[in-house]
From TrEMBL:
Gene: LOC107477336
Principal EC category: transferase
Molecular function GO labels: sulfotransferase activity
Lineage: Eukaryota, Viridiplantae, Streptophyta, Embryophyta, Tracheophyta
A UniProt-annotated Pfam family: Sulfotransfer_1
Matching PANTHER family: SULFOTRANSFERASE SULT
Chain ranges of the Sulfotransferase domain: 67-330
Keyword Transferase recorded: yes
Keywords on record: Transferase
InterPro entries reported in the protein's UniProt record: P-loop_NTPase, Sulfotransferase_dom
Protein species of origin: Arachis duranensis
Protein name, per record: Sulfotransferase
Amino acid sequence: MEEVISDEPSNLPKLLKDEDLRQECKDLMSTLPMEPTYKLYQYQGFWYGSWALQGILSCQKHFEANDKDIILVTTPKSGTTWIKALTFALLNRNKHPHTQKNHPLLVTNPHILVPFLESLFYDEKYIVSNLSQFPSPRLLSIHAPYVSLPKSAKESNCKIVYLCRDPKDISVSMWKFMETLMPEIRGSNLFDEFFELFCRGVNLYGPFWEHVLEYWKESLKRPEKIMFLRYEQMKLHPTLVLKKLAEFLGCPFSKQELDNGMLDDILKLCSFDNLRNLEANKKGTISMFGFDIENKSFFRRGEIGDGKNFLTMEMVEKINTITQKKFSQYGLNFENFTMV
Ligand code: PAP
């Protein structure tokens, strides 16, 4: 069996080379608009690195969602690691009580417990033989925009939990993450260019605003299928969000569980400070998306509003104006939302 996910240490970064791509992906890439600085390709209106593009194409071709599947969809750097941990702990709360000394989340990075479909599907050989062996309900994740989701994910009754975040914080979180993958950009003046591209929608899985709007509209049409969440909601109202998430996934907390503090225990287990300080997340790497990524790079500040510490006033104004223009008619924002 071929391993795609490993926490073995290795040299960083291991960037996938184009010659490793399948011919079908190379052929398509040669026809797509390309952004030269970060080598992103525009497919179905959204931007991908070559590795993610191959994964998405393969997912679209081979992934068969079933009604029991749970798919976590996030815009990158929206709290993916956190929602993976929370949902894993929630669904497995009987099999793995939070008191368990070797609870999987205490010894394994959440990205290994809840893999990215496009990363798994990057290697078709692995996935075709293994995905059927995942325990049911299969808990999976993907960054794909709605338009590019595999057909079965849209048409089956599988549940989708969508998570996004204030784009100011995303842009900075994404840049800081890229610095860990590409140390040569650290301290460079390339951030300004990255930010301009981000505002034009040219970033991994961007445009951010269109990504969010697609899922927002779908979640309004089919609230029983898509739960729409914001990172800010999770930070400000974690108890309420986790309760609603459990209800949405069909595994509500019982009165007894609530009385026993189960919900708070899950929140504590998955808290930023707890996860960040675990050996499993302080050390080691995960192989995905063509990179060997250090586990610790998924835990930086974990705060609302950190973007403002890094962006200039003009940048904040620019991104706020775009967000306002794109979202206001839909009543969407990241500051004054109600948690119904
Ligand atoms: P991904 O989309 O690339 O998988 P993702 O987990 O969304 O990554 O990005 C990490 C962000 O989530 C980091 O944000 P920051 O750069 O603004 O700090 C990280 O700190 C934050 N994060 C990770 N785990 C948690 C957690 N348990 N609680 C809150 N925030 C978290």
